[in-house]
Amino acid sequence: MAGGEEIRGLVFDLQRCCTHDGPGLRTTVFLKGCPLRCLWCDNPESQRAAPELMYFEERCSGCGSCLPRCPRGALERRNGKIGIDRSACDGCGECVRACAPGALEVVGERLGVREVVEAAARDLPFYRRSGGGVTLSGGEPSLQPEFASELLRECRARGIHTAVETAGCREWEALSRVVRSADLVLYDLKHMDGRRHEELTGAPNGLILENLRRIGRMGIPVLVRVPIVPGLTDSEENLRAAVEFCLEVDSLLGIEPLAYHPLGVPKYGRLGREYPLGDLPPPGEEHLRRIASEMERWGARVFRGYFSLPGSRSKG
Amino acid sequence: MEPRLERLRERYLEAKPRLCTERARLATEAYRKTEGEPPILRAAKVLKAVLEGMSVWILEEELLVGHWASSLRGVPMWPEFGVDEFENYVRSGFAPDEDTEREVRELSSYWEGRNYQDMVRALLPERILAAREASVWYWHMGVPGSRRGRYLVNLPMVLGRGFSGARREAEERLERVDPEEPGGLGRQLFYKAALLVCDAVKTFSSRYAAKAREEAKEAEGERGKELEEIAGVCDLVPWEPARTFREALQSTWFAFLIANIESGGDSISFGRLDQLLYPYYLRDLKEGRLTRQGALALVEELLLKCNEITYAPFDLDSHVTGITLGGQTESGRDATNELTYLFLQALEEVRMPKPQVSLRVHRGTPRELLRRAVEVMRVSGGRPQLNSDEAIIPSLLRWGIPLKEARTYSVDGCQHFTTYSRKDHSGWLNLAKVLELALNDGVDRFTGRRIGPPTGNPAGFATFEEVMGAFRRQLEHCVKAMAEESELMDAAIRGTMCLPYASLHVEGCMERGKDVLEGGGRHNWTGMHGVGLANVANSLAAIKKLVFEEGRISMRELLEALGRDFEGYEELRRMLAEAPKWGNDDAYVDSLAAEVVNLFFDEVDRHFCHRNPEKPGPFTPGLHSLIFNVNLGLGTAATPDGRRGGEPLTDGISPSPGTLRAGPTAVFASAAKLDHTRAYTASLALTVNGPVEALTDLFRTYLTDMGGLHLHVNILSPEILLEAKEHPERYRDLLVRVAGFSARFVELPEVLQDLVIKRVALSL
Questions:
Q1: pTM of this prediction?
Q2: Under CATH, which architecture does the A52-107 domain have?
Q3: Residue B342: pLDDT above 80?
Q4: Residues of A with CB below 8 A from B364's CB?
Q5: Which class is A8-48+110-297 in CATH?
Q6: Distance in Å, alpha carbon of A100 to nearest chain B alpha carbon
Q7: Contacts B662 to A, Cβ<8 Å
Q8: Which of residues 554-573 of B touch A (CB under 8 A)?
Q9: What value does the mean pLDDT of chain B take?
Q10: What pLDDT score was predicted for residue B757?
């Protein structure tokens, strides 16, 4: 970054000590904005590429002190609580400052590369010991290619291992800028059937499959992650096709089946949205074990849970 | 675990702790008979009378023998050290029958006014009594009394030379004493007492040998043979050196048991059993006398037996016996061996609250060992706790322990680090109360009594620096007064109470011919531990930010809210809760915590303990609480971190329950900002859940790369604990870490159960 203004990115969370976003203990930086709308998305606040207001109704005292603070008149009283006109709200956060019980929060903040790197560097001793590092997740990091790639480069310059999580639904130019700057790519593969993929995520999978092949050809280590959503993605046919496709990827490290979980459901309500999957239960441990062993039988190296890569842990 | 041990374990689980007056009765008779004799001879004769007179009994199926009371989990009494608690015990129903009740009351009335606690009380000036009553500090002196315990049983001596060897040395030294040289007479008495004590030890083990032989005659089949073996072992040890693994374990148990019978002091510990027993284990395996399975069973029996050294139901069960594993050799190499793993396995299988087990971790510790330890923690109430050589060895060096000796340190009891050359004492300073005094012009908010110097009405403080200034002056005063009480306690004990048996174990006493309570050990230190660090740091951060920087609260308002225990000040209390909190890697509050710690350490470092007047030792500052964060919290008014008056204080350097926002690495990052190498101990307790491998990496980083000193972790989910509280019958053996020790969750009083539940729950 020579001279000019610092690059900023829209970040909605920064989580230390993550154990499920790549090898070792990691800090995960969640970038806001995603081209996909997966039905099971556990981070609905990651989807829109703009700050958003979250409303925790159970904390709201109904005092109404937020109402006059909204410059756009997006707030109103509703049944002793408040209602939000989502089309008018621009997430400016004026109301948040007026809310004593903390029922309002804005998700999404523009952060500079430097402050994110500083925050990530705090756990450097843990990264070294565990073979961990920083993971950019989302949303879709490649929607903010300049910020994402700069962030990854800066982390690397500090000796921090970097990973980027992507769903790959992005033109190659932007995506390649980002993945090129990472030590490891965590690549989501939601469904192998193009039409089904579109039904489940809102976009077809042609570009996604093509991009995965390209990453393979670039030689960047890639761990493919397949969401196991009961009844939607976990048919033997789909999983087998996914494994077969992945085995053709040159730099494939392995495949990680990711169990669907409903922990993100309450967030839909806070954003004023309906959760599309109702009360779909998560897959059982036995089912997951069977999937993992099937995948192994088909020739994949399967990753599950916390792991670290050989030789990545510091000694002594 | 073998079925035999499962059955033994069941008996320990079933037995309820009950008072046992046998020891007190025998001792009191002996005290009466020896009135007027020199204290050290008297103490030796008392121990001799107890060991000769107490019941000797063997539990069905046990192979290691020796009990400290007349029934399983019986609780003996030491009225000569204090009778304050006795009436309470009787009222709470710990006496098994009316005869015992009557006897306890008789003992109380005989010892009233002539016990050690009363002697100290008579010496204390009014201002010190007032501070003590106001919960400003707590000296461990009644029951359990650290002045009587807190040392390592000297197993190199016991196993290597036996008490016959110790007796020979005492004899030789006695011959060489010239009674006319200064102190000569005292030394003569010391050695004479040593002879008496060694003989009494022999009598005690011989009584067990005889008992086993007698029972062997009646016993059928296998058991008869077993009892003959027991008799054979007891003929030999601990009088002679141990030759086999089994003899070593029996000798270890006797040596430890008698230490506890002598003084009833807390935290008498075993030291590094994986190192000490390894040569016997290896030789027996090689010569075909032992299998790994056989060794495991004996170790498990030893761990089980530790659960009979108990002091009555709860507050007394903080009697902590320590076993230390792992660490380094004298030359700094990793000391892990097969027994290190075997002890972990035993701990995992026995699932009983005692003993405390500590694993020493350093840069050379195999990852596999730590991983195994984390697995065991899950089921054994956070044991082993983890201690870092990288922080502890430098702090021992700082206080004058030579490097080779420092590398062989052990954990005494819960979280004190020691070697054979010293016996410890400890007291706890209530840092939150010090802040209360600073915010109330030196006056106790609960009683209105003046405790500290007047430091001004804080309503008039114009800057945050004035708050810190008042805190510093109150701290200076309290540490000084606390040191003064400790010195008076040492002075009162010198020449009145003696521990001739303990003096055989603490190096220096035998050479100098001086009792350990008179400073006979090579090193004499006294620990002072700060309690409530997070309460103070969070309080100071709230004051600094809300009162002086943002002006959202006035000092007057804050003081009013504290005075009313936040009654009617909910909004203000909510603002306080939002201020920066310790444990989130937030420089704003972490720097205040570090400042408080440095001030406290500086103050403690100013004072010296004169147990050995010829060579004053340090007061060693530490940060841990045992369970005194609960006791001291009762006497502490509301604090500006939002804590209400009477609620427990925070534990060691642990964050305040419910204030963690940034995950476990942030907790460690905050903790690592304190200078652990200046600390005698700095205990960090967490409740966390996550994959074993991840937890292994997490703990290892803190302990070997970031300077962290200690970790005690509950790997549990709060849901399980809530359920256990609801259905105690289903969770009879659920173990949790309380504070420096582990306990059966369902046996804890509700206030501690809730504290364990509320404590930082983190998930990876």
A1: 0.94
A2: 2-Layer Sandwich (3.30)
A3: yes
A4: 316
A5: alpha beta
A6: 9
A7: 16
A8: 571
A9: 92
A10: 77
